[in-house]
Write a structure and sequence with these properties.
CATH class of the largest domain: Mainly Alpha
Order of helices and strands: HHHEEHHHHHHHHHHHH
Keywords: DNA-binding, Repressor, Transcription, Transcription regulation
Oligomer: single chain
Number of helices: 15
Number of domains: 2
CATH architecture of the largest domain: Orthogonal Bundle
Protein name: TetR/AcrR family transcriptional regulator C-terminal domain-containing protein
CATH topology of the largest domain: Arc Repressor Mutant, subunit A
Organism: Dactylosporangium salmoneum
Number of strands: 2
InterPro entries: Bact_HTH_transcr_reg, Homeodomain-like_sf, HTH_TetR, Repressor_TetR_C, Tet_transcr_reg_TetR, Tet_transcr_reg_TetR-rel_C_sf, Tscrpt_reg_HTH_GntR, WH-like_DNA-bd_sf
Largest sheet: 2 strands, antiparallel
Distance between the termini: 66 Å
Helix content: 55-70%
């Protein structure tokens, strides 16, 4: 039995046993890659097979979920997602599986089983599609009711944004400071942070700079998620294997003593520095908030 078939068999059994109920999210492509140790193509094929069997379906802002099978009233059609909702959900699933570069209107139309020109009746083009996708994924984890001081509120927003990028690495590529997408669910984070910082004493223009700095840290770290996923998919070599393969080159470059700090760091051993992106994100977030704390003290 192929690896994708084993994945399909297990998820199918979980659905049949009621462990995964209608509307509940099933493991994403990247979760399957991590948990089963398979390539992205294998994980994608498993989810595609489950969709073809009608067991799962894409849902905007959530991911792939167990399909609902509502009973129609006599003489009434069964309720279901609109064509636009299906298009956005399917586009998110495709981008999650293969990256943003692999997403096109033609491919999306094929996944939806419709001519490309029919898709254009519902979505004006890829720019609008990306806007709708961004709004959908940022809506997955809505901000809670405001609580705590400014630092707690900014940390909450940053970690929710990080979670979005973790689930959908392509989203970091879509976000921009020069031409930010007018996506209400993404804009809600900026509004949340502006309110917290202004209440703490920062003038609104300075609060906006601080909110952009926070968003830039999250996005800047998250850009590496998509890059690493694509590199691993293209080469079949994960991050640890890549670093191991660079040892000889590192030794040649540092042999002349030009990089003493690197040599001392290497001498500490492979576990001296944690290069996991989650660790780098949290370290940067803490230092950024420390700096804003000093700024607030000055402004007061």
């Amino acid at each position: 039995m192929h690896a994708y078939q084993r994945i399909v068999t297990q998820i199918r059994a979980r659905i049949a046993a009621g462990e995964l109920r209608p509307g509940e999210r099933v493991p994403s492509t990247r979760e399957l890659m991590r948990d089963w140790g398979v390539a992205m193509a294998t994980a994608t094929k498993a989810l595609a097979t489950l969709r073809q069997e009608g067991l799962v379906e894409p849902r905007p802002g959530v991911g792939t979920v167990v399909a609902r099978r509502p009973r129609a009233r006599p003489g009434a059609p069964a309720e279901g997602p609109t064509t636009l909702e299906r298009a956005v959900g399917t586009a998110v699933a495709l981008a999650d599986a293969d990256g943003l570069a692999a997403l096109s209107m033609r491919r999306l139309a094929a996944a939806l089983g419709m001519p490309t020109m029919t898709l254009y009746r519902h979505v004006a083009g890829k720019e609008e599609l990306l806007l709708l996708m961004t709004d959908a994924v940022f809506g997955e984890a809505p901000l809670p009711s405001p609580s705590g001081d400014w630092r707690a509120r900014l940390a909450t927003s940053a970690r929710l944004q990080w979670g979005v990028y973790r689930r959908h690495p392509w989203a970091a590529e879509v976000m921009s400071f020069t031409r930010p997408p007018m996506a209400a669910n993404a804009m809600a984070h900026t509004e949340w942070n502006l309110a917290a910082l202004e209440a703490a004493g920062l003038p609104l223009p300075m609060a906006m700079h601080a909110a952009m700095l926070l968003a830039g840290h999250v996005r800047g770290t998250a850009i590496n998620l998509e890059w690493e996923a694509n590199a691993e998919q293209d080469t079949g070599v994960d991050n640890v294997e890549w670093f191991t393969a660079q040892e000889a080159r590192f030794a040649r470059i540092t042999a002349g003593g030009r990089f003493p700090a690197f040599l001392r760091l290497a001498a500490l051993g492979p576990d001296a520095v944690d290069f996991e992106l989650d660790t780098l994100f949290e370290f940067g977030l803490a230092r950024l908030l420390d700096g804003l704390s000093v700024l607030l003290t000055v402004e007061r």
